[in-house]
Specification:
CATH superfamily of the largest domain: Type I PLP-dependent aspartate aminotransferase-like (Major domain)
Bound molecules: pyridoxal-5'-phosphate
Radius of gyration: 21 Å
Number of strands: 13
Shape: globular
CATH class of the largest domain: Alpha Beta
Number of domains: 2
Distance between the termini: 46 Å
Order of helices and strands: HHEHHEHEHEHEHEEEHHHEEHEEEH
Number of helices: 13
Helix content: 25-40%
Strand order of the largest sheet: 2-8-7-6-5-3-4
Strand content: 15-25%
Length: about 400
């Protein structure tokens, strides 16, 4: 039997997706499962998307250019301009979601065996893509007890080696819900400049922030050749199924590499590029509506979590996730219990255990991530079910 590659063996299963079979089995038993594990909101798609797709009636549906449809790239340009960043078409490449932009950014920044710094807990796809690319991720730990604040530069410098090539900053952050402060971002940029690192700036949740105005790291002109921006329409327009994002950079070498990667996979879907043009044009209004909705949802979940004995959490400042520390030893076992052994009024909840969001073994054992992606009445029910499930689990597993 031929042997599987090391990278195939090392690429982890998504902790967000690995409990879905148990959730489906619960549903097959007739249990209603509130799915709060993945960032896949039930918020409706802006109608302009389908209108634009319907109005596009080409005789032939050919490949779009690898560098993106002219009109689509122009819409991204205009969108960035509204954020104060003036990009040329050659500074933007549409990608299959931010996910593909992350892959391109990592591939352009580091070779196999080289290292990239990430803040942990980290959005899990970084772990998978790094494993696929043979890149080693070095974690800089953020702690809930000090509000996930940036550690000292000295602490960050301890993670450096001659093989370090880049640092990733996700703002607003998934999974911590942290909004990076201006001072923290400036420290990261200066740190990267001093040590000659690329900064991979993931701004998937840019507008979903519960204080201040949407920002783009590319506004820092002094550092702009170092920054590789990865972006997405998935969250701000509730369009994860469209698989549209982009990679943007002022660095011509990075853009050249990204274009060659993009040529290898030919193009991004034409219909989805067409559909997102009007959304990018009305980004401010649409994203503001989404922000308000997620703020209300996260607020509701926070209020409910605050009523649960032994549960601690830090209210989210952006994105739509909340990490909660539970009074349990093994959150993964708790998640399994909720799906296999528990139902309240024939309902249960699927959340994501946090262990796999860490790189350092042993961290996150008692943590879950709640994605506030359902409508408020559903979230309210889900929190009730979670509370009862937790009490039942603690009875069966006394600390
Ligand atoms: C921080 C972060 N980056 C990237 C992505 C991928 O998004 P996309 O749907 O655009 O591929 C996600 C999805 O949840 C995310 O949370």
């Amino acid at each position: 039997m031929p042997k599987l590659s090391k990278r195939a063996q090392l690429t982890p299963a998504s902790p967000i997706r690995k409990f879905l079979p148990l959730a489906r089995a619960a549903q097959a038993r007739g249990v209603k499962v509130y799915a709060l594990s993945s960032g896949d909101p039930d918020y409706s798609v802006p109608p302009a998307f389908f209108k634009a797709v319907r109005n596009y009636q080409p005789k032939v549906l050919g490949y779009a250019p690898s560098s993106g449809l002219f009109e689509h790239v122009a819409a991204w340009q205009k969108y960035y301009q509204s954020l104060g960043v003036k990009l040329q078409p050659e500074n933007i490449i549409p990608t299959a979601g931010c996910a593909e932009a992350i892959l391109f950014a990592l591939l352009a920044a580091a070779d196999p065996g080289e290292e990239v710094l990430v803040f942990e807990p980290v959005y899990v796809s970084y772990k998978s893509f790094a494993a696929m690319a043979g890149i080693v991720l070095k974690p800089i730990r953020l702690k809930p007890e000090n509000g996930y604040a940036l550690p000292s530069v000295g602490e960050m410098e301890q993670k450096l080696s001659p093989k370090t090539r880049a640092i990733v900053v996700v703002n607003p952050d998934n999974p911590t819900g942290k909004l990076w402060e201006k001072k923290e971002l400036e420290t990261i940029l200066a740190f990267a400049a001093k040590h000659d690192l690329f900064v991979i700036a993931d701004e998937t949740y840019r507008e979903i922030r519960f204080q201040g105005q949407p920002e783009c790291l590319l506004k820092y002109e002094a550092y702009r050749d170092q920054i590789i921006l990865t972006d997405s329409v998935s969250k701000r327009f509730t369009l994860p199924g469209a698989r549209i994002g982009c990679l943007a950079s002022f660095n011509p070498e990075i853009m050249g590499a990204a274009l060659r990667f993009a040529q290898a996979r030919l193009s991004v879907g034409t219909l989805e590029q067409v559909g997102t043009v009007p959304l990018l044009r009305q980004a401010k209004t649409l994203a503001q509506k989404a922000r308000k909705e997620y703020q209300a949802r996260c607020g509701l979940v926070s209020r409910e979590l605050a009523k649960m004995p032994g549960v601690t959490f830090r209210p989210t400042q952006g994105a739509f996730y909340i990490i909660a520390q539970l009074p349990v030893q093994d959150a993964e076992d708790f998640v399994r219990f909720m799906l296999e052994d528990f139902a309240y009024n024939n309902q249960t909840v699927l959340v994501a255990p946090m262990q796999d969001f860490y790189l350092t073994p042993g961290l996150g054992q008692n943590e879950i991530r709640i994605a506030c992606v359902l409508k408020k009445p559903d979230l309210k029910n889900a929190m009730q079910v979670l509370k009862f499930g937790l009490a039942e689990y603690q009875k069966k597993n006394p600390a």
